[in-house]
């Protein structure tokens, strides 16, 4: 019970700090196609695509990656979902041209922590393609 309450308080505190979402400094990363939402499935769940190769090759620090992830996902929550009807999403990780030794574990961890912390229970399915 305490953990749930603390999570709600932390989420509320962050939302007060970051809303409206500030996209300053994120424009190039948004245009790059690193992470984006593309259409929806037959149940109207938004589909998030993460290009892992761009995550490997792109110069982006952890704080900016965290801000980018939060901004994109929060936009999907605000504009692509309806409370009580559409509350989760698909994630597609595109591993094209990424070798086993190139896997950006630390960067993926930054993104996963951000989503787990503030968007609990929203993931419907995760697909890995071009593995």
From TrEMBL:
<dbReference type="InterPro" id="IPR001251">
    <property type="entry name" value="CRAL-TRIO_dom"/>
</dbReference>
<protein>
    <recommendedName>
        <fullName>CRAL-TRIO domain-containing protein</fullName>
    </recommendedName>
</protein>
<dbReference type="Pfam" id="PF00650">
    <property type="entry name" value="CRAL_TRIO"/>
</dbReference>
<dbReference type="InterPro" id="IPR036865">
    <property type="entry name" value="CRAL-TRIO_dom_sf"/>
</dbReference>
<feature type="domain" description="CRAL-TRIO">
    <location>
        <begin position="31"/>
        <end position="131"/>
    </location>
</feature>
């Amino acid at each position: 019970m305490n953990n749930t309450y603390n999570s709600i308080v932390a989420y509320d505190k962050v939302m007060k700090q970051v809303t409206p979402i500030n996209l300053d400094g994120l424009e190039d990363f948004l245009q790059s196609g690193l992470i984006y939402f593309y259409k929806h499935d037959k149940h109207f769940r938004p589909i998030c695509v993460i290009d892992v190769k761009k995550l490997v090759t792109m110069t982006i620090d952890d704080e900016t990656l965290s801000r980018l992830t939060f901004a994109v996902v929060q936009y999907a929550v605000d504009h692509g979902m309806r409370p009580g009807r559409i509350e989760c999403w698909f994630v597609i990780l595109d591993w094209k041209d990424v070798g086993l030794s190139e896997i950006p574990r630390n960067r993926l961890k930054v993104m996963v922590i951000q989503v787990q912390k503030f968007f609990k229970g929203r993931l419907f399915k995760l697909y890995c393609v071009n593995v």
